Amino acid sequence: MAFPYFQQASRRRGKARTAVPQAPAQQRSPAERKHRRSRGVALIIALVSITLLTVVATEFAYNTRVDLQLAANQRDEVRAYYMARSGLSLGRLLLRFQKQVDQTPIPNPASILGALTGGGANGAGGANAFQPQSLNLQLWKLARVDCHMLKGLVKSDGAEDASGRPIETEPLQADSNFQMEGEDGENAGAATQMAAQMQRRSFGGFEGCFLATISDEEEKLNVMRLNTGGAEAQATALRMADMFADKRFEFLWQQDDANHVRSTPQDTVIALKDWSDEDTTQSTFNRNDPTNPFVSGFADEGSPYSRYEPRYDVKNARFDSLDELYRVHGINDRFMAAFRDRLTVYPDINSKPNINTDDPIMLGLAIMSAADPNRPDPRLTDPVFLNELISRIRAARMFNFFGMSVSDFLGVVEQAGIAVNPLIKGNVQQNRYLGDKSKTFTIKSVGEAGSVQKTLTAVIRLDDGLGKLVYYREE
Length: 475
Hints:
Blueprint: H1 4-18, H2 30-102, E1 105-107, H3 109-116, E2 132-134, H4 139-142, E3 145-146, H5 147-153, H6 190-197, E4 209-216, E5 221-222, H7 231-244, H8 265-276, E6 281-285, E7 294-300, H9 333-339, E8 343-344, H10 360-370, H11 383-398, H12 406-415, H13 422-425, E9 440-449, E10 452-461, E11 468-474
Parallel strand pairs: 5-8
Antiparallel strand pairs: 1-2, 3-4, 4-9, 6-7, 9-10, 10-11
Region (Disordered): 1-35, 280-300
InterPro entries: GspK, GspK_central_sf
Protein name: General secretion pathway protein GspK
């Protein structure tokens, strides 16, 4: 007797055996299978194509931005260059006015007072009492040459008036009688309408800015004066030796340079003289001989340069630029960092150091040049005394309405109890040691437009025009 569970299970197996079998799955044809594979390949090709197009488009957009920025930089470079040129031109114009001021005569108040009282300078009256002087005002120090100065001179598009409101341009008035040649009746008023739509644009509109700084080259020690011979060469050499041997610069002479050469202040002065003189013999320096301080020795002046690598010869000609000093024996980067702003090669060989300098070292050298070499004052070696005397000179310059002259400078030095060189005091106007006016200036103009800066450096020697260009450099 079978159990009910097994009976149910046998009945289910019987039903399963008697179930109608299903039809087999339909087989795909080779064409269908090929079409299905083709759709997968097309999807891959589409993805790769989209990826490549994205990369190409991104690269194209990047190159476009780079080209646009390069074009903008080139545009700004041109603007910056002409901004710097504008600063250079305005600086030359200001120096032109400076020359006119230097040539403006003014009567000597002391001479006028002496003439009115019946006496005169040195007891002389008449016409000799009215010996004219000239203004010593330094306009190039008082005026700031920049783009704001130019905007104040001309009215530019987009400029603002005193109240801050923009200056509006006015439309041009059309001439009704004006008619272009060959016009017919239909376009007879074309030119008139065009003229009516035009705007009057003011002169001087520009984008960017510039700043020009002017420095006096004759406030420095002129290296070329070492070849003048006589008292001028002696004074220049002594002042150079004093400056080089200053205690503040003593460390410069305690190390070897790149060529493993150690020099001294006097050797450097002699090397500067031998580089630009005309002979090939090394000079010797006699500090006490005012007639011929440099005499020819017996050595070859090119012997120090034969030890350099590579070797080169002495130029025996005038310096072309201040950077040429690097080629002189004993001069290196440390030397130029200390004395570059106090040496020059651009002024005329007969130019005199200007006493209107603001450099305390150059003022101290000017005081030493004014002192009598036959009666040396030991106080001139005291830095405290020199600083006090320099403060007196600066105070006298501030209260001098017409600017400080050599006579005023000598007066302050004499008031301090220092004996003045009789060669200067006897002929102040034509002395060969000190001056109060300059003819050679350096203009450094920096133009800026966008993110681009352009620097132009020019050395100008005053003449009857806007100045003779002595040196020019573009950075």
